[in-house]
Amino acid sequence: MTRYLFRRLISLALSLVVASLVIFAVIEVVPGDPASYMLGLNAKPETVAALKDQLGLNAPAPVRYLNWITGMVQGDFGLSYTYKTPVSQLVIQRLAVSLPLALYALALAVLVAFPAGLMAAARRGKVADAAVMGATQVGIALPNFWFAMLLVLAFALHWQIFPAGGFPGWDQGLWPGLRALTLPAIALALPQAAILARVLRSALIETLGQDYIRTARAKGLTGGQTLLRHGLRNALIPVLTIMGMQFSFLLAGAIIIENVFYLPGLGRLIFQAITQRDLIVVESVVMILVFAVILVTFLVDLAYAAIDPRLRKRA
Q1: What's the pLDDT tens digit per position in 200-225?
Q2: d(CA 233, CA 244)
Q3: Which pTM was predicted?
Q4: How far is CA 65 from the centre of its chain?
Q5: Domains of the chain with CATH codes
């Protein structure tokens, strides 16, 4: 297990180095510069040059890359050109919205997908299976931003159960914060639950065809007992893969939903930073999100080893 863990840590570190080089290189080739954007079209060249020197944009690219990486390792993500605020402070403020939203949406997706996938697999080829598969097809095809607007019309404007948008802050209490995130979480969870249910159903059906499942049934276990005791655990590896990918998407890819509900999350921060040419924010936030994705992948790999002992022996 130690060797398996060490190999995964080496892979994580190499992935981070490669990702940082790619992110920095992409930002470098983007046309324009923050100084010209901040000062406007009519700014004098000497003024622009002075601001670029103040922001450190005149230094060679390798020097700026090393300064950026060194600062991130030390917890210093730089100063936002637009907000004049440390990027780390901006990230913490926005992460307080995006992280609970991602966890909330993933929890809802799991609560819906697991019973649906289990029921579809247990009743393969029957009416319940067809109903679940039809519902998941609709969930995948339905655009989440359109579903989000329907949720606002129904639950915010008509019945007035949840707020239509905005976020009050966690200092106002847990319930107001959860109420503000409920509709966005449902909108995000719908397609993820549909995908997860279909993957779980397929994995369970494949698992239920194995010899050890037939042996368990021959020993007197019911179909439900066999499904839960033997089938579910062995079908979890592809499900965990999808869940890891979904969490990464929910954390970094909820820009449209955050804009629909006016949520001050990481997605909106990246969008605003790109439009404002705040490159240090774009670089740092994207790198943090890449780190989150790689870390989730690493944790999923560890979960593989915990579920399947053969992976530990193979490593």
Answers
A1: 999 898 887 777 777 777 777 776 77
A2: 17
A3: 0.84
A4: 26
A5: 87-314 (1.10.3720.10)
